[in-house]
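>> received
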Amino acid sequence: MMGTDLERVLLKRSAADSELWNQWLQSDQDQRSKLEQAFEPAGSLPLEAMSSDRIVHEDRLRKLCIDYRLRFLDAEHFSNRIPYEAVAAMEQLDRAAGQRLNGYKIVAPASMFRLTYQDKDPMLMLQLGGGYYYLVHKWGGEVSLMRRMVMYPLRSFAAMLQTIFGLCALVALSVPDAILGAQPGMVRIIFFFYLLFASSAMTALYGFSRAKNFSENLWSSRYDD
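>> returned
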């Protein structure tokens, strides 16, 4: 089964971010010094060492993490082994800066981090300042096409309600009139509200016991669900 390449998705969404980043740099003479301060005390990354098409804004990362229920945390919390290719990419940036950089963060599923209280497709990001990040390296395979669909109800409380409402309406509308008796319209409405009540109760009882929080609250949290 074909999967989803998160790197391609993120860079497609971030196509205009490099120009916005340049505008942010030019908007104030102090912005370049602010950029360098983001890396203190471990050096600054020369602008010419970066590929502009790999600069992404935090808003894109937040949307990606919410869509696929991922985390965006400091690299120090990552519990799995970082592959040689990613380390080599980091060392290349370090050489361009003349010393070791800090500010690295990783996008990955929660299971790949050391979380307090304790499909893998991590992306290594470097913080640039001003809400912008540089995509250093992506490794692992592609995420399942189903992950975004399955995780949709867990994006937010509104998404959960939309999913329950939509599924109940779909089931209620799919029942043939012949089964509903002499007044199918009224029976269908009653059946819909019965399904809505039952589904909401089941979701509250079992759903929240397995996933206690929504992606919009977890995407940058180092704590477990």
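>> The radius of gyration is 23 Å.
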